[in-house]
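ugh ok fine here u go
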Amino acid sequence: MSRIGKKPIEVPANVQVDIDGAQVRVKGPRGQLERSFSPEMTISMQARDGRSLVLVERPTDQPRHRALHGLTRALLANMVTGVLDGFRRSLTIEGTGYRAEVQGGSLVLLVGYSHPVRFEPPADIAFAVDRSGRVVTVEGVDKELVGELAARIRRVRPPEPYLGKGIRYSDERIRRKAGKAGR
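structure:
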């Protein structure tokens, strides 16, 4: 039995969840998210001890339904967390002359190419750059979108193992290699 799928999702008072069959809409102080789930999963609201809970149930014990059970519950929990607190991903830029800046809401990366690389933010996503221009933060309500955008920014200039130059996640450790002659 899926331990993640069985766990109920607690809905805070300032978050509203609307369930319409397989379509779920979550509205909170930071925004609104909407998603369609597999119609095989049963999503329901319950009130227990004065708390609102969202429960996900599966029809059978088949491996496919077990996988969908945990996935559906995790996606719903991320939607509730996103509209309540939001998600953020930080990237660090390393290298001489490498920097980033925000111009009119869009992110501009200067990372050693002959041209600046520009990223336009989708709806509900914001970029922030610290004063040094070395730490970029991607913030938003949709965890999947925040992670995908951070990965696309990292892909512009991935960190290389010899000098450590490039764009990396702030919590990422780069395994360094010895240069020529095994310095």
